[in-house]
Task: structure prediction
Amino acid sequence: MQHAIELDALRTEVGAAAEPMANAVSACVHCGFCLPACPTYIELGEEMDSPRGRIVLMKEVLEGGLALEEALGHIDPCLGCMSCVTACPSGVEYGELLMPFRELAEGGRSRWWLDRFWRGLMLDTLASPRRLRRMLRFGRLAAPFRKVLPARLAAPLSLLPRSADRAEIAFGTFPAVGERRARAVLLAGCAQQVLAPRIHRATIEVLTRSGVEVVVPEEESCCGSLAFHAGDAPRARAAAGALLRVLGPTGLLPEVDAVLTNAAGCGSGLKEYGLLFAGRPEEETARALAAKVRDVSTFLAALEAPAPPPFAQPLRVVYHDACHLAHAQRERTAPRRLLAQVQGVTLVEPRDWQICCGSAGIYNLEEPELAARLGRRKAEALLEGEPDVIASGNIGCLTQIESHLRRLDSSVPVRHTMEVLASAHGAGYPAPAR
Ligand code: SF4
Ligand code: SF4
Result:
């Protein structure tokens, strides 16, 4: 029996996302070029765990030819890394199919109550700095017992940072050093401000020394990207709605040149606000905000500010592409340019740059076994470059890679790109050293 996606029916379920979903399905010509770029296909070797296979599965569910629960066993392990998008020669926007599908699936699936509770707990905790701080204290007490705990409970404990970062997150306005070239909002974010507030301080340091006046609004917290990428669109909209009220057209947005983030996952989610709010009253505001969002590396490279002072010692930097920067935002050039322009830096390209490290939002908490396989693979590939420091632009990747280096008995430091640049500027940031 032939099926076809019933657009009218789909519109009643997913609203304005129906067309992009149908377009993604029909654009796929099943060539298979995306398969070698897909981490789950590499690890599991099954067609149904590849982008092409998943597109077919989602299509069949949308056409009514396959029960949702039958497809989810292959859709859930998808990392949402978008490596298939940059690999696809036909321009299939897989994310525009996957994200609304996940929202649809959340409404139609039956989750075990413990599963639902665990998910909600993870998303709420990571989105709230206050809750996360409390949970970290508890996690440090429980960490010695992680080997006897089930994988799901042990996963967050194995990701705890090597040491507590005691830097203070800073809010307010930070004037440009020297001539002002731009004025920008810097989002303080949620989990990162607890796990690694030093990244925030380093980013302000680099931006202000590059002539940017930085505004960090205190009222802002989670942007909702973590929940959106996990398929929990209502939770994502609640968080994003609050951000729109702080930054929207009547807030700070008209007064700044850009809204900056130093977390690639947040940047890609913020740029997808149009999809998140498609067909809703907030859509216009959401699109206006999304249009001003930049990853901090993109913004800085475009400013063409003078390079930081040279490092006293040569520094071998292996750069890891965060999927949400390289694939979702298609930004690979800017961070490399910023790092390579510092004298003393040798930039080393790791093998398999396009393959996800297994972090992917809360993926390493929900799918710990597969995430651990990818984490180990990534840590080994990065170490082959014999780095003095590994740099990347996303807190999830930094945490995941650091945890897997630890398991390989490696003490190579893992730093945000902005931290490497801040250390070149001096200002209390020593050059990363083992
Ligand atoms: S998603 Fe793109 S690369 Fe993959 S099978 Fe379809 S057309 Fe080919
Ligand atoms: S998003 Fe990543 S894991 Fe999912 S199908 Fe595409 S390449 Fe594979």
